[in-house]
Recover the amino acids of this structure.
């Protein structure tokens, strides 16, 4: 199998030591089918990073873990608001969300924000709603973001990816993604202290406990021995 050099879900570039994952690797045809039905842009052979591989599996097969809020259904017979798309709308997004995401989403979707008729909610087809959904989850813990508490990344994204990898967290951050409040604090700690053993004792508990929480939210096993490695020598 000739694998892509970028993840088909987050489009982050694979590192030299990364092993791409594929939907076809999952045990159970029903489990694979649900993912492919839920993510029409993916195929069984699409290359995914570890974080996205786990995320699409949870999203399709264990949706209760994502705690995604209920969305207003689109008006009857409404069509997708993306320019030149005539597909029927299946989901809606509030205008305030789109304004927040405008800088990140503008290269993916051409939405006429000034067009009259959409009101508070903008309708999207399944395919285009994927991009909105992609930008509304935290780039680290993959949980749904709160519109009033999302934090953008800058040039530090690449350096942070390396530090998260050292912590065993498979993230593919970019300047277009956002973080939740707690992940932003965690990221700030790692950027300030490249050596985690140098983190002050007053912040060590948060660092260890929140790292464990992130790993658990991504369904990555964590043991007590992992924490011991982070103890100051």
């Amino acid at each position: 199998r000739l694998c892509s050099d970028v993840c088909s879900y987050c489009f982050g570039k694979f590192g030299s030591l990364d092993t791409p994952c594929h939907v076809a690797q999952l045990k159970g045809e029903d489990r694979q089918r649900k993912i492919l039905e839920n993510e029409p842009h993916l195929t069984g052979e699409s290359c995914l990073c570890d974080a996205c591989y786990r995320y699409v599996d949870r999203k399709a097969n264990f949706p209760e873990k994502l705690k995604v809020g209920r969305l207003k259904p689109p008006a009857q017979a409404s069509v997708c608001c993306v320019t030149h798309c005539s597909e029927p709308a299946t989901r809606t997004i509030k205008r305030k969300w789109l304004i927040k995401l405008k800088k990140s989403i503008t290269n993916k979707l051409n939405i006429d924000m000034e067009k009259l008729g959409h009101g508070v909610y903008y309708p999207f087809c399944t395919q285009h709603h994927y991009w909105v959904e992609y930008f509304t989850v935290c780039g680290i813990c993959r949980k749904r973001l709160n519109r009033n508490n999302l934090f953008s990344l800058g040039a530090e994204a690449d350096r942070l990816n390396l530090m998260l990898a050292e912590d065993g967290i498979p993230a593919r951050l970019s300047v277009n993604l956002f973080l939740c409040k707690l992940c932003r604090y965690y990221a700030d700690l790692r950027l300030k202290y490249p050596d985690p053993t140098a983190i002050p004792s007053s912040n060590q508990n948060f660092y260890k406990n929140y790292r464990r929480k992130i790993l658990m939210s991504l369904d990555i096993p964590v043991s007590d021995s992992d924490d011991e490695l982070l103890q100051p020598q």
